[in-house]
């Protein structure tokens, strides 16, 4: 039988046909292992008939796996040559399956031709966090997802307060739901082989804890707190809470947060309480 997913030979042939020289700038590392693809699709719990959003389909490794599982795929790819080839590859290897390719920068997508319920992607590594936050902000229909990211970033996304790797991405991600790591992936399944390890990260959306303007205010506090993560909150937040450590202390106390704590101890709910106390103090 002819292959239905991309292995090393198919990746090589496609790259040759398209004269693709993978670029670091676009994080182009292509998966050439069918087992890895099926594992990602299975971990994501993709069900036949549902609409899946894929960012950065590349040569189509994961796309074909999603189509094989019976999903309708909306694939957003910035590289024009790759985007143009994808329907042909899918037409040969998964004929008749529902695929829509959007040729665009994922960071700029605000509308999609459909309502995806799941995100499944092997993300371009240099922009994985901004892409995730952008998609969660703009597409309420996304209820869950599995993404492959650089190991370090994945552990950061899934970290909770008190962890060494807990940082601004962890708090911002937690605004939208619950995150977990879902298994390592060897760098050997990629061509070219990247110099970092990868991890699968899953999320389940939860109701957002505040309004859009509260989110913006909360994220500004998070950025300020983690820009100076070793400083106490009354110092790290002074510039965004009235200008002095005394004004910051008053807001923090009104929010029920110890001014001597550091950002790495706070949950997203704590940051939101500070944002609300600051708004109340301004009013
Ligand atoms: N999904 C494929 C796979 O698993 O083999 C390729 C994954 S590769 C790590 C990342 C892909 O994202 C590349 O195809 C790259 O061209 C694309 N990409 C990079 N930046 C992008 C952006 N801003 N918007 C959409 N796609 C992007």
From TrEMBL:
Q: What is its EC number?
A: 2.1.1.182
Q: Which residues form a coiled coil?
A: none
Location of the Ribosomal RNA adenine methylase transferase N-terminal domain = 36-207
| Domain of life (superkingdom) | Bacteria
Keywords annotated in UniProt: Cytoplasm, Methyltransferase, RNA-binding, rRNA processing, S-adenosyl-L-methionine, Transferase
* Keyword Cytoplasm attached: yes
Does the record bear Transmembrane helix in its keywords? no
GO MF term list: 16S rRNA (adenine(1518)-N(6)/adenine(1519)-N(6))-dimethyltransferase activity; RNA binding
Compartment list: Cytoplasm
Catalyzed reactions per annotation = adenosine(1518)/adenosine(1519) in 16S rRNA + 4 S-adenosyl-L-methionine = N(6)-dimethyladenosine(1518)/N(6)-dimethyladenosine(1519) in 16S rRNA + 4 S-adenosyl-L-homocysteine + 4 H(+)
List residues binding S-adenosyl-L-methionine.
29, 31, 56, 77, 105, 122
Enzyme class of the recorded protein, top EC level = transferase
Q: Which GO terms describe its cellular component?
A: cytosol
PANTHER family linked: DIMETHYLADENOSINE TRANSFERASE (PTHR11727), DIMETHYLADENOSINE TRANSFERASE-RELATED (PTHR11727:SF7)
Into which family does the record put it?
A: Belongs to the class I-like SAM-binding methyltransferase superfamily. rRNA adenine N(6)-methyltransferase family. RsmA subfamily.
Function as written in the Swiss-Prot or TrEMBL entry: Specifically dimethylates two adjacent adenosines (A1518 and A1519) in the loop of a conserved hairpin near the 3'-end of 16S rRNA in the 30S particle. May play a critical role in biogenesis of 30S subunits.
Q: Which HAMAP family match?
A: 16SrRNA_methyltr_A (MF_00607)
Q: What is this protein called?
A: Ribosomal RNA small subunit methyltransferase A
